[in-house]
Automatic annotation (TrEMBL):
It holds the Pfam family Rhomboid. It is a multi-pass membrane protein. This is Rhomboid-related protein 2. The chain crosses the membrane at residues 68-90, 122-147, 159-176, 182-201, 213-232, 244-264, 276-298. It is found in: Membrane. Involved in regulated intramembrane proteolysis and the subsequent release of functional polypeptides from their membrane anchors. Known substrate: EFNB3. Residues 117-265 form the Peptidase S54 rhomboid domain. Belongs to the peptidase S54 family. GO terms for biological process: proteolysis. It comes from the Eukaryota. Keywords: Hydrolase, Membrane, Protease, Serine protease, Transmembrane, Transmembrane helix. The gene is RHBDL2.
Length: 302
């Protein structure tokens, strides 16, 4: 009987362990606040920590969590992208909001194979979007994921990962789809997702709270919809429209799974002292140099 009782208690522990930890965290937060109930911002930070950090570093985050500086980078870049979209949708010629062609193809921001010598286009293409579904999907994903990431890791780290994905996206497109235009912030968005999901895979049991699987499925649905739209813009546009490359999605994801993973997994460590970061940077720079060489000497667009 004693053995059966022990077995029953052991089987109950996994189900109650999370609740016990949450209760202990709640009690610690009350003690830190002089016996008062935790404030709303503390509760928000606790929820964010469960989604963004493995268990062993959550307490370190909660001890120093604050909203200063606020998530300025991801909000600012989202507002700029929205403003550029509205500008081309309202004040530039186009057929309809769903298929913006004439306006954006003449934009000085879009990546154009014929204008690769204008190097800023390898980054500025992220500001221009091909339609309502395109920009809404990108904005939803980068705000839902980017704001919590920036609350935890701050703007300089999130900005590094985001821009690494943007540059990787345009360079990959110039190699694998060298004659096609490129628009949208999907390279940066997929870099954030790649870095986050690599951390989730490595620390799956610790980083996904209740109903986490359902939420991940919703995110996957949005990703599938975004990729489907990109494939449509690439392969199924009419003859009088210009197809848009989708290589940035894949390249941005790989940038996130390398650089993004090392950045987001070094919450309580010095990033520059982590050898994984320098390995990822070296691999990224090698691909960058090859892409530059390809564009100068080997590209069919020449």
């Amino acid at each position: 009987m004693a053995d059966a009782h022990d077995l029953e208690m052991e089987s109950m522990n996994p189900n109650t362990e999370t609740e016990m930890k949450e209760a202990m965290e709640e009690e610690e937060m009350r003690e830190d606040g002089g016996g008062k109930a935790p404030s709303k911002d503390k509760k928000v930070h606790r929820i964010v920590s469960k989604w963004m950090l493995p268990e062993q570093v959550r307490r370190s985050y909660l001890d120093r969590a604050n909203c200063f500086p606020p998530p300025v980078f991801i909000i600012s870049i989202s507002l700029v992208e929205l403003a550029v979209f509205i500008y081309y949708a309202v004040w530039k010629p186009q057929k309809q909001w769903i298929t913006l062609d004439t306006g954006i193809l003449e934009s000085p921001f879009i990546y154009s194979p014929a204008k690769r010598e204008e190097a800023w286009r390898f980054i500025s293409y992220m500001l221009v979007h091909a339609g309502v579904q395109h920009i809404v999907g990108n904005l939803i994903m980068q705000l839902i994921l980017g704001i919590p990431l920036e609350m935890v890791h701050k703007g300089h780290r999130v900005g590094l990962v985001y821009l690494a994905g943007v540059i990787a996206g345009s360079l990959a497109s110039s190699i694998f789809d060298p004659l096609k235009y490129l628009v949208g912030a999907s390279g940066g968005v997929y870099a954030l997702m790649g870095g986050y999901f690599m951390n989730v895979l490595v620390n799956f049991r610790e980083m996904i709270p209740a109903l986490g699987i359902a939420r991940l499925l919703i995110i996957i649905l949005i990703i599938t919809s975004d990729i489907g739209f990109a494939l449509y813009r690439r392969f199924f546009v009419s003859a009088n429209e210009s197809p848009v490359s989708f290589a940035a999605h894949i390249a941005g994801g790989f940038a996130g799974m390398s650089i993004g993973y090392t950045v987001f997994s070094c919450f309580d460590k010095a990033l520059l002292k982590d050898p994984r970061f320098w390995i990822a940077i070296a691999a990224y720079l090698a691909c960058f140099i090859f892409a530059v060489f390809f564009n100068i000497f080997l590209s069919p667009a020449n």
